[in-house]
Amino acid sequence: MRSAFKPVPRNFFSRDPRKVSRELLGKLLVRRNGRSPLVARIVEVEAYLGADDAAAHAASGRTARNAVLFGPPGYAYIYFIYGNHYCLNVSCMPDGTPGGVLFRALEPLEGINEMAALRGITLDGEKNLKLLTSGPGRLAEAFGITREQDNGKDLTSAKCDLYIADDGAPAPKVAVTKRIGITKSADLPLRYIVPGNKFVSGPKGSRLIENQ
Length: 212
Hints:
Blueprint: E1 6-7, H1 10-13, H2 17-24, E2 28-31, E3 38-48, H3 67-70, E4 76-81, E5 85-91, E6 100-110, H4 112-119, H5 136-142, H6 147-150, E7 162-166, E8 175-177, E9 191-193, E10 210-211
Antiparallel strand pairs: 1-7, 2-3, 2-7, 3-6, 3-9, 4-5, 5-6, 8-9, 8-10
């Protein structure tokens, strides 16, 4: 494991999910996997705002399922969707106030063959590399993420086998669009992407609301 992989501190996440989303782009998701860590750069996320956001899991109040979103910031909230894949989120806002960020796409950097094995796919050079981590279900599978194993893990701790890190890379440009794949609160500009990155998921024609 590189010493440069420093965990992002908890106070980074104790803020509005919109601010966290912008600054998460360019950070790393790391899965400690023996001597060969899985490492990928975050290139697409979506913010979910809590009680005032009808699309957020926290909108209907605290339950056993979504309790992580109401707890301290910086913890993994994992849910199962469509009966076939998991989605990774990180809790935001101070303890007791719900909010979170959904990870939608990553750019794989290290452990690519291991990610392919976890996805059950055979890579053909650069041709199908995007299939590894473009989309929330794909990236969760590539990192072996499940609710049973990872829900509630501390993503700010290098002692944890799954965490978010900062390798000092320059902050990328950020573009903002409406969220995709939802029907409630669908017009809110809460999807944040690294423009031009080939691993960004969703339709090519997603209209940019902001690009800076």
